[in-house]
Amino acid sequence: MSRGVGIEAGLLSPADARTFIDSPVRDRCHRILIEPCNPDPVAALRDAEEMGEIVSSAGLTLPQVHHGYDGSCWAVNQRALSLGHGIRTGIEDVTVLPDGRAAKSNAELVEAARSLIENNVRHK
């Protein structure tokens, strides 16, 4: 921070969100990453929602980027887009496409994310 590097707060769980809200660096961050690590889509969506509620209840209006892990990635990304948040994807976090097929490359994952974004924009 002392060198002017923008900080992104990475929240992996509701407990992380609560810790962040009480953190002295919260007002110095530029963005929040909502990253539920549970590969189960139902659990990840529940955690993402709870993290979002904790952040919102604290009055934080920082931009948010969301992504899930493995099996939860696409559900978490879709939820984020429907709420107007950014998304992130890549082989670091997910190796399957929305239809469950194994991704051949990072570029294929990015293309799937781009399609998800376009479909979301069309349905608004």
**Low-confidence spans:** none
Number of strands: 4
Strand arrangement across the biggest beta sheet: 1-2-3-4
Structural class: alpha/beta
List the helices and strands and how they pair.
Layout: E1 7-11, H1 14-21, E2 29-34, H2 41-57, E3 64-66, H3 73-82, E4 86-87, H4 106-122
Parallel strand pairs: 1-2, 2-3, 3-4
Structure explained in plain terms:
A 4-stranded parallel beta sheet has the order 1-2-3-4. It is built from 4 helices and 4 strands; from the N terminus they run E-H-E-H-E-H-E-H. The chain is α/β, with parallel strands linked by helices. The longest helix is centred in the middle third of the chain and has 17 residues, at 41-57. The model has no long low-confidence stretch (mean pLDDT 93). It has helices spanning 14-21, 41-57, 73-82, 106-122; strands spanning 7-11, 29-34, 64-66, 86-87.
List descriptors.
124 residues, alpha/beta, 4 helices, single chain, 4-stranded parallel β-sheet, 42% helix, globular
How would you concisely characterize the structure shown here?
It is built from four helices and four strands, in the order βαβαβαβα. The protein is α/β, with parallel strands linked by helices and 124 residues long. Strand 3, helix 3 and strand 4 form a beta-alpha-beta unit.
